[in-house]
Amino acid sequence: MGSLEQNAPAGRGMGVETVAGILREEIPIANNLTPGAAVMDGSQQQNSGVNHHHEVSVMAAAGNGLKKRVTIPLPLEVGTRVLCRWRDGKLHPVKVIERRKLNSGPDDYQYYVHYNEFNRRLDEWVKLDQLELESVEADADEKVEDKAGGLKMTRHQKRKIEETHAEEGHEDFDAASLREHEEFTKVKNISKIELGRYEIDTWYFSPFPPEYSDCSKLFFCEFCLSFVKRKEQLARHMRKCDLKHPPGDEIYRQGSLSMFEVDGKKNKIYGQNLCYLAKLFLDHKTLYYDVDLFLFYILCECDDRGCHMVGYFSKEKHSEEGYNLACILTLPPYQRKGYGKFLIAFSYELSKKEGKVGTPERPLSDLGLLSYRGYWTRILLDILKKHRGNVSIKELSDMTAIKTEDVITTLQTLELIQYRKGQHVICADPKLLERHLKAAGRGGLDVDASKLIWTPYKEQGG
């Protein structure tokens, strides 16, 4: 894999090539980026000799229903645990991950906080007035009281919550790699993007080139995915950009939905920009730097203005491990509409055309894992419900293009399989199948295989 090099070309998509790559699970060591590069933390300020401290006096709980006056030094230190008022209006326990100076006064700081109860995608910058200073922990062994809900957590409970959220989607990382990943990506560098008619709050860090470290919002061309710092720059670009759909071949159309296949080798800049964009919404994936080896399948909603990206998945042109999908994303404005399940189903339709079974590359994100489990469950239950007579694991795999290991783990989760006399036996009680089908919910949008016009890559002379 590659790394971001010191002499990497600057600039972006308007015909200027920069380093980027496909999203994979390796952890990059980026030579020209540092964690939280866009912020000045407390230690940097101390070294610069301009760190101004003062104190604020607050009434804090002292036990037995009593309160005592305590002094809280400001600015708050990185690592401070405190309660923060979230968008639901309630107080939630957080940990200060980073801080940055705004103006000259001692209170003019913003704090980047992680909500202990939530996924990292909800980490954000907050102002001092959102923090409940009375709840600042003076000692790590103290219990934190959630004044909004009366919830008390011991240090052990807090650690358990943090470990649970830290491991979501990172199960294949060892401890050292996970710590390195979280340190490198701990602060979101881009807060918002504008893509087409949507302004979207980002979820995670993405290693954009250093010249973009001073802006919190980026503007993307929704067709070629070039990105710029200012709205007027995007307006100028849109007047010149002649694309109205992703570059590449349209391989599927059903109603207003289209799927385009984009070859990373033929459309390198587009592939790189797509990876920068996708990393803003994927935590467990990091950048791998050779898009030439991948095909991108871009799902679009089409209207008289053009084809607007809804989501995508990528796959290796030649996967020795039998992966039929490397990375998958549905953009936030289009989530909960069945598009994720559609993308998964589409990847398996391609596998059927290739005459292979497939499985997604690991690790999966938390949302990706939920989508796959739901897809596998519905597909297998539907077959078992309609099938007459016995059916084997191998036959289920051949019918669905789902790898046998995924078939087995899904049926085990549903308690529909037993291991007897050295082999797996499917126990498909009709009432149990019906109950599981109801619990699985609707299947989302269907892929009409008759509308797929596609030749596998190996047959294209690749």
Automatic annotation (TrEMBL):
It catalyses: L-lysyl-[protein] + acetyl-CoA = N(6)-acetyl-L-lysyl-[protein] + CoA + H(+). Its EC number is 2.3.1.48. GO terms for biological process: DNA repair; regulation of transcription by RNA polymerase II; response to UV-B. The active site is at E361. GO terms for molecular function: chromatin binding; histone acetyltransferase activity; transcription coregulator activity; zinc ion binding. It is found in: Nucleus. InterPro entries: Acyl_CoA_acyltransferase, Chromo-like_dom_sf, Chromo/chromo_shadow_dom, HAT_MYST-type, MYST_HAT, Tudor-knot, WH-like_DNA-bd_sf, Zf-MYST. Coiled coil: none annotated. Residues 185-456 form the MYST-type HAT domain. Its main location: nucleus. Keywords: Acetylation, Activator, Acyltransferase, Chromatin regulator, Metal-binding, Nucleus, Transcription, Transcription regulation, Transferase, Zinc, Zinc-finger. The keyword Zinc-finger applies. One of its GO terms (cellular component) is NuA4 histone acetyltransferase complex. Belongs to the MYST (SAS/MOZ) family. This is Histone acetyltransferase. It comes from Physcomitrium patens (Spreading-leaved earth moss).
